[in-house]
């Protein structure tokens, strides 16, 4: 009787399950910089777009969205390997999608762009990316980020300005993204070098430089260049400094020591021309120059051999140079809200909060209080989850004058 009851229940539920499955509408997969979803959402979108492909194998939009959903889903699942999921059991996975895409929509912008990015380390990737540039639509939107990254990583600096200008003219970035990157750039010393990590701290800086002619003297370097010997050699050549050489096998073998040695080399060589190396505060912790000291100037870390009053420099940046108006006002509907933009908003408050106690130590309580109310207002306008809000509240209370 019990088995009969369960079977009857399953049969009764089947029509409802089918209806629920049919309500999953395929949605365009936006960059994770713009909006972020949980793994299950990307998995359902992958399945929804895969159905679209099956009904029309030449649908480029379906292929692109299916690939993007699959790519994000795989990245998130790999980040939580403790779940014990077997990636080989995922179908279609991103590799198989590439194979199927090549058969269904060869010689298209979508295929070449996806293939060139997916297999970026393969020799044939350059050919596919060049073909994607040749076939790209009039306004490829955020695909500009992919194309700019390709030119940058492949060392085609002569083509970067034009691509960045086109991107600036045809796309828009939220105010929070642009002002955070502007604030990092504008306070650097003349002819400085800054190492940043992640597209949200790299692409906007190039757009500010080439699109608005802001701090074109600064060399922005992706942290990824430090992990790749040929790219690091290329950046040394571009900075007109000596090639990095290391004979210690341990340093060559151990990634953290390898990176630390390269960064120390940059500091020493740049110093010969009175140039300073800076690090974005969001760069990975292991990015610390061997035997050097990193000092906070607010939103960036400087690396100089000689000691100096970096706190006074941070005060100056907050009071005279940073554009922090966006911390005071809510989004009034005229500006996009990006997930990554909110994270930069969060970073600004988190990084500037310790300065309140520094002001108190200097006997400038009024300035400490002004900074507190500015950061407090900014925290209330943050559009992130409760965890981020609680973390900021804790930092603000800890440093409150």
The percent of residues in helical segments reads 55-70%
Counted by DSSP, the helix tally is 18
Strand order of the largest sheet: 2-1-3-5-4
- Give the rounded overall mean pLDDT: 89
Q: Helices and strands, in N-to-C order?
A: HHHHHHHHHEHEHHHEEEHHHHH
Q: Got a strand count?
A: 5
**Largest β sheet strand count, sense and barrel closure:** 5 strands, mixed
**How far apart, in Å, are the first and last alpha carbons?**
71 Å
Low-confidence stretches: 1-21, 82-89
Strand pairing plus helix content: what structural class?
A: mainly alpha
What secondary-structure arrangement, pairings included, does this model have?
Layout: H1 2-22, H2 39-55, H3 60-78, H4 94-104, H5 109-118, H6 125-135, H7 143-153, H8 160-170, H9 175-186, E1 193-196, H10 203-212, E2 219-222, H11 229-238, H12 249-253, H13 255-271, E3 277-280, E4 294-296, E5 300-303, H14 310-321, H15 339-352, H16 355-361, H17 365-380, H18 386-399
Parallel strand pairs: 1-2, 1-3
Antiparallel strand pairs: 3-5, 4-5
Helix pairs in contact: 2-3, 3-4, 4-5, 5-6, 7-8, 8-10, 9-15, 15-17, 16-17, 17-18
Provide an overview of this structure:
It is a single chain. This protein has 401 residues and is mainly alpha-helical. The protein is 57% helix and 5% strand. The protein contains 18 helices and 5 strands. The protein has a 5-stranded mixed β-sheet with strand order 2-1-3-5-4. Strand 4 (294-296) and strand 5 form a beta hairpin. Helix 3 packs antiparallel against helix 4 (94-104), helix 7 (143-153) runs antiparallel to helix 8 and helix 16 (355-361) runs antiparallel to helix 17. Mean pLDDT is 89; it is low at 1-21 and 82-89.
